[in-house]
Write a structure and sequence with these properties.
three-stranded antiparallel sheet
Length: 167
């Protein structure tokens, strides 16, 4: 019998331990590879979609497009645009959220990342929004197996004013 995918080494690609050992440059490079994986990790201007003519401003970690003169960063046009936290924190939040089976509460995320509750709340919602925007809309066919689904239950009665007992 073959080994389950989650028990293999490929499933352990993005661990918290690896993320917090990264330098800023390594986190930047990993984020860049994730962001532009379709283009081989090479940046693409979000305004004119030019992938070849731009240059990197190392002091600010941004690119400037040679055609449209647009400046863009690694998070421009994503849910993480205008970020204030280090990239390691965003990568850690993504890893923590995606490694959990049932999602992640903002209060727990605030404790794990040592940030304010409001920051964790916004961060968790940004991750959820990103997952929702990038989900596959293709209809399933054939035999479909669902793990951990809850279906059915009872229908709640209507709450009508005339039916209430005044206490």
């Amino acid at each position: 019998m073959a080994q389950h995918f989650l028990l293999k080494a490929e499933a352990r690609g993005l661990s918290i331990k690896k993320i917090f050992r990264m330098t800023d440059d390594e986190a930047f490079s990993l984020f860049k590879d994730f962001r532009w994986k379709d283009n081989g990790g090479n940046p693409v201007c979000p305004k004119c979609e030019n992938s070849g003519k731009h240059y990197f401003l190392k002091t600010r970690n941004i690119w400037k497009c040679a055609d449209c003169k647009c400046q863009f960063s690694i998070t421009s046009g994503t849910v993480f645009a205008y970020h204030k936290l280090p990239l390691q924190d965003y990568l850690a939040a993504i890893a923590i959220y995606s490694n959990g089976a049932k999602g992640f509460a903002a209060l727990h995320m605030s404790r794990e990342l040592d940030v304010q509750y409001k920051t964790a709340f916004v961060l968790v919602h940004k991750i959820r929004e990103s997952i929702f925007k990038n989900q596959d809309q293709e209809l399933l066919d054939g035999a479909v197996e669902i793990d951990g689904g809850y279906f059915g239950g009872t229908v709640k009665q209507e709450n009508r004013l005339v039916d209430r007992v005044d206490r």
